[in-house]
């Protein structure tokens, strides 16, 4: 897409010497090439314009590295493509960090709300009423295991009973309590 190679080479040389008019020529003659390339890649006019501006800024700062055996437009497109890839990677990294931050902000508050506490209290009250309807030795089994949080071994020692008997009695107590709960629902 190089229109006039000798004129372009002259403007590049002039720009390398600091000639502002030469910079304007290079910008104006290649703006649409770079902008349209980026617009096709990003599908976003704002991003395409920003990357195009960055492309010319970087190209003009590195103009001394331009090799005239390559087309100037191709050199600009290469710079533009690399800038867009870098931008994309930064956006992906930023997105991952935001997602991690959002996950950290989603820490579950395990403290019960006032409603939860009330419901728990009501359920516990109903459960205790049903437990009191069990025979005393079954009440004791439920109390030791679930309210005092004793292990089977500790329960066997406290009740002075074999471990197998404790397990069977607790199983029976849970079964009776479960049946009682189902009847009251």
Q: How many strand units?
A: 0
> For this structure, what is the CATH class of the largest domain?
Mainly Alpha
CATH topology of the largest domain: Rna Polymerase Sigma Factor, Chain: A
Q: What's the gyration radius in Å?
A: 39 Å
Ends distance: 82 Å
β-strand amount: under 5%
Helix content: over 70%
Could you describe the largest sheet, including whether it forms a barrel?
Answer: none
The residue ranges in which pLDDT falls below 50 over 5 or more consecutive positions are none
Spatial shape: rod-shaped
How many structural domains are formed by the residues? Answer: 2
Q: Element order, helices and strands? A: HHHHHHHH
Averaged pLDDT: 85
Number of alpha- plus pi-helical segments: 8
GO molecular function, one term: DNA binding
Family: Belongs to the sigma-70 factor family. ECF subfamily.
InterPro entries: RNA_pol_sigma-70-like, RNA_pol_sigma-70_dom, RNA_pol_sigma70_r2, RNA_pol_sigma70_r4_t2, RNA_pol_sigma_r2, RNA_pol_sigma_r3/r4-like, WH-like_DNA-bd_sf
Pfam families: Sigma70_r2, Sigma70_r4_2
